[in-house]
Design a protein that fits this description.
The protein is an all-alpha fold. The protein is built from 19 helices and 2 strands. A two-stranded antiparallel sheet has the order 1-2. α14 crosses α16.
Length: 502
């Protein structure tokens, strides 16, 4: 026994004794490099924005927005420095810091907003205060989740009274691959072939409108064609990516590698950044990188840190493929912060406009959320089906372009008022924290293996969080529902030997 034990610990090749030190060194290096960025998140960047020239008034809205920016920056810093990978919570605070903190603060300082504010200034004060309260409720929900112990998953289904992990059934996963190729091929044929996917989003939308899948007043048909053309392909790629990332045997199996290559090529067509919305491509990118590198804490921190820089510098200019060459909006920027007040970040001002709209029309008491939940019902069947919250508010404002955001806070506010918004955000914080803890267990130690459904679902939801938080929900729930349906159909709770191959 002694000789076996000793030989197991004796290095035989290279310098395996240095292996444990390498991830520790990378983690320490990552934390050391994060310190200046964290100081920048909470102190430096807000101070630089506050020093910008502009016509903004330093009133209650200004100070509340500054508090919200610093609060979100501190919470994002906590996520970056966390020893555990809090995937959903990290993405939530990244969105809040950029879209509800830095960008609106720049708008308040400069005195310019992407969308006009039609109500009184007090509605903006209320919106900022409610976002701040909603963030505190989210934190409270996450805190309550951390106090509740997780039920330990049994390592084996035999003789176990504990919960069994959700795994991808091998045969059903192969069927998902076939569905991905078939649905994506149908999607490409409907749009006239793969070439159109490398033109522009404008041409894609025009082709979809001319394909016959869109009926007057309803986009359900086009949503299903696009959803099934994109989501199964992405899910299949994620499962095979995790298999290659966690299984030595899979990497030595030519058939598995070839399927992964084919799925990667398919996604380069249907999920590329040229013909898709930036938020959707961001979902694809984040889901892929967190699936390919599931257990690297340093990589997780790097993604959050660089994500802030990318959102400030790259994201506002990433819509150059939205229009045809002659119809692209010219880039005019006299200040590095000008894109934050002239382009995409209208979430806070739209919350203020929504408050004004509710003050004149009243709360809808669940109608808007019901319409989002029943997104699949055509308007020909449900004549009174609610429109997107952003669209309704935009029409009330008298705008011609009604593709406006409706952040999650506003969806709760419209239907349920302040109390419902606080309760809804607390529930989301609780669910996110519980999911993060289970995901951390799924991707570390000897978990459920390469077929873990949670190890795929959590990165996908994390990436899709940007879309859910930006809103409107009616536009966002379609692809999420298709992803949930695919995951349910391939999930099994029986222990599969293939799931544990290494």
């Amino acid at each position: 026994m002694t000789s076996v034990h000793t030989s197991a610990r004796t290095p035989t090749r290279g310098k395996p004794s240095d292996a444990p030190a390498r991830p520790i060194a990378w983690a320490m290096l990552s934390r050391a490099l994060s310190v200046p960025l964290i100081l920048g998140l909470v102190c430096f960047l807000p101070a630089v924005i506050a020093a910008q020239p502009g016509s903004g008034v330093r009133d209650t809205a200004y100070w509340l927005q500054l508090v919200l920016t610093c609060y979100a920056g501190a919470r994002l810093a906590t996520m970056i420095l966390s020893t555990r990978r809090r995937l959903l919570q990290g993405v939530f605070w990244m969105f809040v810091y950029i879209a509800m903190g830095v960008a609106p603060f720049a708008q308040v300082v400069i005195g310019q907003t992407p969308t006009p504010m039609v109500g009184p200034r007090q509605d903006l004060v209320t919106a900022i205060a409610m976002v701040l309260v909603g963030c505190a409720a989210y934190d409270l929900g996450a805190l309550l989740a951390s106090r509740r112990p997780l039920r330990r998953r049994a390592p084996s289904a035999r003789g176990s009274g504990g919960g069994k992990p959700a795994l991808a059934h091998p045969l059903r996963l192969r069927l998902l691959v076939l569905l991905a190729f078939a649905a994506s091929a149908f999607y490409m044929l409907k749009l006239g072939g793969p070439a159109v996917f490398f033109s522009s989003r404008q041409e894609i939308n025009e082709t979809v409108a001319a394909s016959g899948v869109v009926t007057e007043g309803s986009n359900v048909g086009s949503a299903f064609v696009k959803g099934f053309g994109q989501v199964p392909a992405l899910l299949a790629l994620l499962f095979y990516t995790r298999r290659l990332a966690t299984s030595h045997r899979a990497r030595r199996t030519p058939s598995t590698v070839l399927v992964w290559v084919a799925l990667a090529a398919l996604n380069l067509v249907v999920n590329n950044p040229i013909s898709n919305a930036r938020y959707w491509f961001l979902t694809v990118l984040m889901a892929f990188v967190f699936t390919a590198f599931p257990s690297s804490a340093a990589f997780y921190r790097t993604v959050l840190a660089t994500g802030v820089v990318g959102a400030l510098v790259v994201f506002p200019y990433a819509d150059r493929f939205r229009y045809e060459e002659g119809g692209q909006r010219p880039v005019q920027s006299a200040s590095v912060f000008e894109p934050l007040v002239t382009k995409d970040y209208d979430q806070m001002v739209m919350f203020a406009n929504t408050i004004s709209w509710v003050d004149t029309r009243g709360h809808t008491y669940g109608r808007q959320l019901t319409g989002s939940a029943l997104f699949f019902v055509p308007r020909a069947v449900w004549s009174g089906k609610p429109e997107d919250t952003g669209v309704r508010v935009g029409q009330w404002m008298g705008l011609r372009m009604t593709n406006l955001s409706a952040p999650l806070w506003t969806e709760f506010w419209v239907d349920l008022g302040p109390a419902g918004m606080v309760g809804g955000m607390a529930l989301i914080g609780y669910a996110a924290a519980r999911t993060d803890r289970r995901y951390a267990l799924a991707v570390t130690r000897a978990g459920p293996g390469s077929g873990s459904v949670l190890a795929i679902a959590a990165p996908l939801i994390a990436g899709y969080t940007f879309i859910l938080l930006r809103g409107p929900l009616l536009q966002a729930v379609g692809k999420l529902a298709i992803a949930a349906l695919c995951l349910v159909l391939i999930t099994t709770f029986r222990e599969q030997r293939a799931a544990r191959r290494r």
